[in-house]
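Reopening this one. Same input as before:
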Amino acid sequence: MSAGKSIEAPSSRRPPTSRAYLTGLGALFRYGWRQARRLFHVLVGLTFLVFAGIGASLAYSEWQAYAHNPANGVWRFATIAGFSLLLVIFGLYSFLKARSVQ
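Same output, byte for byte:
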């Protein structure tokens, strides 16, 4: 027996290939989870922007109705336009969040 080798119990060691396999599998799972979170944030941002577009279209029609009959007031237009602006902000924030997922 050489002086440089130590004696270990056979049950305390794993084969080196199984440890490398588990490390690689864990890294693959983390990468997949990270990409799934990014995709989720992008889809949420896209949904917010689609709803904002629908709200902008509705706000435009309300503005036209207000232009024809100012007695109705501008409150309905302002509410819809404000909510659409809020949805745009949420959509952009979600895209920024998707870029920062680590």
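So the earlier flakiness isn't reproducible anymore. For the record, The longest helix spans residues 16-68.
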